[in-house]
Design brief:
By secondary structure, this protein is of the alpha/beta class. The chain is built from 21 helices and 14 strands. Strands 7-6-5-11-12 form a 5-stranded parallel sheet, with helices on both faces. Strands 1-2-4-3 form a 4-stranded antiparallel sheet. α2 packs across α3, α12 crosses α13 and α18 runs antiparallel to α20. It starts with a helix and ends in an 8-residue tail after the last helix. 43% of the residues are buried.
Length: 586
Amino acid sequence: MYLQFRDDVEDALVSALEALDLPTDDLGVEDPPEGVEAVLASSAAFRLAGEEGAPPPQVAGKIAGEIDASEYDLIEEASAQGPYVNFVPSDAYYEGTVEEAQREDFGHLEPTGQRVVVEHTSANPTGPVHVGRARNPIVGDAVARVLSFAGHDVDRHYYVNDAGRQMAVFTWAYETFDEADLDSDPERDKADYDLVRYYRKGNRFLEDADPDEVEEAEDEIQAIMQGLEAGDDETYERVREVVDTVLGGMRESLDRLPAEFDEFVKETRFLRNGAADDVVARLKELDEAVYEEDAWQLELDEFGIEKNFVFLRSDDTTLYATRDLAHHEWKFDNYDRAVTVLGEDHKLQARQMNATLDLLGNDTDQLRQVIYSYVNLPEGKMSTRAGTGIDLDDLLDEAIDRARDEVETRLDDRIRDDDLTEEDVERIAEQVGIGAVRYDIVSKQPTKAITFEWDRALDFEAQSAPYVQYVHARCCGILDEAGLRTAPDSFDASLLETEAERELLEVVARFPAVIEEAAEDLEPHVVATYTRDIAETFNTFYRECQVLSDDVDDDLRDARLALVAASKHAVGNALQVLGVAAPRSM
């Protein structure tokens, strides 16, 4: 309903400005300033003051005077206040919001017909998923969900590095060392924890072993890399065994978040099908191509990039970035838009990638990158390669344990009379614990660094996942107590007239617009901010408006139950966008 209201406001402004013979290219429609009793406002008077030769408040008054609110179903009033033209919605707006929000898919926008690929995570398959990198699958999955809610046809891809030196080292180490050569048992009974020990052993060997033995090992590693480059099937199968085994364990951890993928795209695809060779040949023909320091490079000074882009080694092996160029051109051939989620340490590579794709004749407007900073724990930075870090599984286990303790301490204070079994407690602990981790990470602007803190993430009283989840559970509890799963079959939304009811309806109505904004800017944290707004507003409504009390008129009771159902859909679907569970009971 908010989007329709905005359309009415924009139409009213265009008509008024045309009547005044003023430009209509910038309507300045925005949220009103704090404390203003309106849903939308226009700041156009600021920009038109020079055109009119009058102060902004006077221009705002002239614009408002040209608007006949009675011509619009959703506009009650348009009035000037200082330099703004404020728009108050009609009763039809509030009533329409209650009706619209009864849909279980409330918040989904109309299909756009656009195919979008979101590549995220893409961590090298060298061992368990690490906490420091956990922001990528969480942010990436949320970006994909936002785009899907916004009506796009979204595919989620994981780009698998199965052709670089790391995988050659891993394969050599796995084939060279026996279980008896390893220093420890696996930390978990999972494939990635088992095999990572070989990778760590191999790296220690290459650092510390006798130089002659290291040279022999390096020859074998180089042979693996050359075999992959040449498309040798036997070499590919050797590496594939290691890659797929480790990746299988990593996927189990990612499934816990959950982070969903439609396809795991391997680098070797672009070696084996000749796409990487084609890219190299075209790059060599560019005026910017030079052979320096035993490697083929591109000079990208014209793009303001001082560091050259290296695309081919002296031994004729490609680099990850070269193969990724072929990967991106494949994306452009198969999708309308491509979104890649990258850590902040990949900023330079992203700039080089965009510039090189442009030189190769691609439309880089199709490509957008979401850059994020890393997640730290209070203990400090962590390293997977050294084997000293904290893995995602550790974090999620700890989250569930802490959430279980918190849930159990609150059992005696629960208002609902449904008895929770041990299985219920375990389910809620997992929903709350993993939801707390995910929400705390996705709720921050991606470019801001995060130090994860348990007390903040699991605070039921603060602006956290449990705080929002509890509102969804409360909505479900109210409806359950009324013997309903959703709103009554009929209700009179015009009875929702109090300030608390209207404010809640205004927040509910904004949800589709929040999805629109988050999808346009690729910023899922905007949805997290919305969930806090609706949780706070619902709690105010819950305190001030009785729903099931005996002294509440039946018709008003049904209208308020409809509002509760609308709130449940809004907050539940917003949590779904964030990938956070929406419990029915807590």
